[in-house]
Design brief:
721 residues, 6-stranded parallel beta sheet, 30 helices, alpha/beta, 7-stranded parallel beta sheet
Length: 721
């Protein structure tokens, strides 16, 4: 009659025996490689057995009565029991590390061993061992576990997957106790087979319209799609999907992924996109095709308590249980969310990892993968493909140079298959050429740029930073047709700006959009003239995809310029800009304009960039070999600085915040996300000192200054960042 959790709203206690069995049953995952299914079951059986002793039972009873009680950790005792039983086995880490960290997070083995040392001589372990043996007998767990030798880096990922499976199983079982109504939302998803049938019907309607208007662009889009579906029947592994911007890769990529998943009996499709500004747009496309209930849009992590405290108040507990586990058939997420989760030590982020198994991962705009993290990124991608039945598709018009390169050992010997084998002909076909490039040699001032933009009826200018975008926009304040777009605006605000821009373009009304890199990939804009500040070559080519996208004018103008006093981001971005300038100096204007239409230039460009950058700058591979999970998480960061969510008072932002604070569920967090602006750590600190933001929950802030209807929080920024 021991308890695992306090009573639910019906007054029913959650019995420990039921919880251990329920967690073990959920953790019984046959998809785990290296015959690790039995280890996953053991983790489920043992993880909360430390709740059995009287001190923890007294704590639960006091908590149920609303009384305060001293901290009573249970994970170390369970980990000590696991260590005592398995210390003679080589695989003790596969059990002890997930069990010890299922609340506090994964730690390195030495730290865990030191923490559990005091528990190893506790007399209660003898009693717990008898109960454990009874439970193991119930599940008929085969031991000992003796797989073939596992290389260190593959073992590091296996422990992550076991940890993920345990965390999710534990939380699902607790959720079924506390909020059984929420658990009902996690069942009844359509299968990928169902979604493939739905997609085919929708796509056929679109193809029919394209055949009625057999323009060169529509013919290319039809051919790209048909080639993608043919290639989808190929074997699992690595694929490259290369097509010019405007080639309808969004739909073709989804079609490939669904067809490939059906062919190989895979469970889900994961589409990783570099920018949150694109996610909203693409997710709406996918939801429109497949249905709202089949597509999970996940990019901002719920601010979950992730410290070493196992006892939480009610609101913290509900937030913890509501973290996303990616059990939907189609996931649309950011590249940051996907890969930082794969290297995370925290339960909230790692919870979803086991659901990456048996999936198709489409990495959109693959050239945006951070070069300084490319070695560990490539290594973990290869492990996913080799050991976890994952197919990976790199989708972009500007393919990074990853295959057969001496600087990228993890991809040595990998066979890359082309989703569109004939992709080069689409780049070289002059009938499909929508823009002409003009590269200006002499720098321009902000005033000169603003003056030139003011006399062009419809134009967009893309700057390298928000600082420069603000400078240019402020110089154009007298121009009533000028609009500003950057991550200074919350998602709902950006959506409104993009809608307004689209309508003005359609009506051929005067419009000048001053923006940053947020529009360069996947955003469906179609300006006749685009200005792009000198930057990395792939960013310039992506910007060209927003120029004359639908071929509405004879030839679009793509103008590349250097801005005086430009604030170019440091690191790989700066290296990319430098390599682009060197490439451009090799050609005259006419030759360069032609060269920029050839896909071979990307291979040359990326080879130059990668050869000048340390692709494992933070020595993550060595840390992974040591199973130093906290250090790996700290080192593997897409952005060098932490960012913090800030709720802004735009439209329904404040009411959505109150709804979430009152009931911190996944649904209410998703409703709140469109009204959040992410601020870097330095910005957050400055705004806190200025009294413009206030922390209202651990890791969550509220904007208390003016929120400008043109520049969002950017109106408050006068200087640098």
């Amino acid at each position: 009659m021991s308890y695992a959790h306090t009573p639910n709203s019906k007054g029913d206690w959650h019995y420990l025996d039921d919880h251990l069995r329920g967690t073990a049953e959920r953790a019984n995952d046959p998809c785990l490689p290296f015959s690790a299914q039995s280890l996953s079951v053991i983790n489920g059986i043992i993880h909360d057995i430390g709740k059995l002793p009287k001190p923890f039972q007294d704590y639960l009873k006091a908590k149920a009565k609303g009384l305060s009680w001293p901290k009573t950790p249970h994970s170390p005792l369970a980990a000590a029991l696991a260590y005592k039983i398995l210390s003679g086995q080589d695989f003790w880490r596969e059990v002890v590390l997930p069990v010890a960290g299922h609340h506090a997070g994964l730690q390195e083995p030495g730290i865990v061993s030191a923490r559990i040392m005091n528990y190893l001589h506790d007399p209660i372990l003898e009693e717990l061992q008898k109960i454990l043996i009874s439970l193991l007998f119930h599940f008929n767990v085969p031991l000992p576990w003796k797989p073939k030798e596992i290389p260190p880096l593959k073992r590091e990922l296996l422990i992550r997957m076991l940890f993920s499976r345990l965390v999710d199983s534990d939380r699902l079982d607790a959720e079924a106790h506390f909020t059984p109504e929420a658990a009902q939302f996690r069942i009844g998803y359509k299968t990928v087979d169902d979604l493939w049938s739905i997609f085919q019907i929708n796509q056929e309607k679109l193809l029919f319209k394209s055949r009625i208007d057999p323009s060169p662009i529509n013919q290319m889009r039809c051919a790209v799609y048909e080639s993608s579906i043919r290639s989808a029947t190929g074997p699992q592994g690595f694929y490259r999907m290369t097509a010019p911007t405007g080639g309808a890769k969004t739909r073709a990529g989804l079609g490939f992924a669904l067809r490939h998943a059906v062919k190989h009996g895979l469970k889900r499709v994961i589409i990783a996109i570099p920018y949150t500004s694109i996610i909203d747009q693409n997710a709406q496309i996918y939801k429109g095709i497949l249905g709202e209930e089949s597509v999970l849009e996940h990019h901002s992590q719920v601010p979950t308590p992730e410290n070493d405290t196992e006892e939480m108040d009610e609101i913290q507990e509900r937030i913890r249980l509501s973290t996303e586990n990616w059990d939907a058939p189609v996931i649309v997420t950011t590249t940051v969310q996907l890969f930082e989760s794969l290297f995370s030590a925290r339960p909230g982020r790692a919870r979803k990892l086991h659901n990456i198994m048996e999936s198709v991962i489409v990495i959109d705009e693959a050239q945006t993968l951070p070069p300084e993290l490319l070695l560990p990124t490539a290594d973990i991608m290869r492990s996913l493909v080799e050991d976890y039945r994952v197919t990976i598709v790199l989708c972009t018009a500007t393919q990074p140079s990853l295959q057969n390169q001496s600087y990228l050992a993890p991809f040595e010997g990998v066979q890359w298959r082309e989703v569109i084998p004939e992709f080069k002909k689409y780049f070289l076909n002059k009938d499909l050429r929508l823009v002409e490039y003009e590269v200006r040699k002499h720098p321009v001032t902000v005033k000169e740029l603003a003056n030139e933009l003011s006399i062009i009826p419809q134009a967009m200018v893309i700057l390298n930073s928000r600082i420069d975008a603000r400078r240019v926009f402020r110089a154009m304040k007298k121009n009533s047709s000028a609009l500003y777009l950057s991550r200074d605006l919350c998602m709902s605000h950006r959506r409104q700006v993009l809608d307004r821009v689209g309508k003005m373009l359609e009506r051929k009304a005067p419009i000048t959009l001053v923006t940053t890199q947020v529009v360069e990939a996947g955003v469906s804009l179609d300006f006749p003239v685009v200005f792009r500040a000198m930057g990395p070559l792939d960013r310039i080519i992506q910007a060209a995809g927003r120029c004359n996208r639908e071929g509405r004018c004879s030839t679009g103008r793509m103008i590349v310029f250097c801005l005086e006093g430009d604030h170019t981001p440091k690191g790989p971005y700066s290296v990319g800009k430098e390599k682009t300038l060197l490439l451009f100096k090799m050609f005259d204007q006419e030759s360069l304009s032609e060269k920029l239409h050839h896909p071979e230039i990307f291979e040359e460009y990326f080879a130059r960039v990668y050869s000048d950058i340390d692709l494992d700058r933070f020595r993550i591979q060595a840390l992974r070999s040591e199973l130093n999970y906290p250090a790996v998480e700290k080192a593997y960061r897409f952005m060098p600085y932490a960012s913090y969510p800030v709720v802004v008072p735009f439209e329904k932002g404040m009411s959505r915040l109150q709804e979430w604070l009152k009931s911190p569920s996944i649904l209410n967090w998703k409703k709140l996300q469109p009204f959040i602006v992410s601020l870097y750590e330095k910005e957050t600190r400055e705004y806190l000192e200025e009294g413009k933001i206030a922390e209202i929950h651990e890791g969550l802030f509220i904007w208390e200054a003016d929120y400008d209807l043109q520049m969002g929080v950017g109106v408050n920024k006068k200087g640098g960042e």
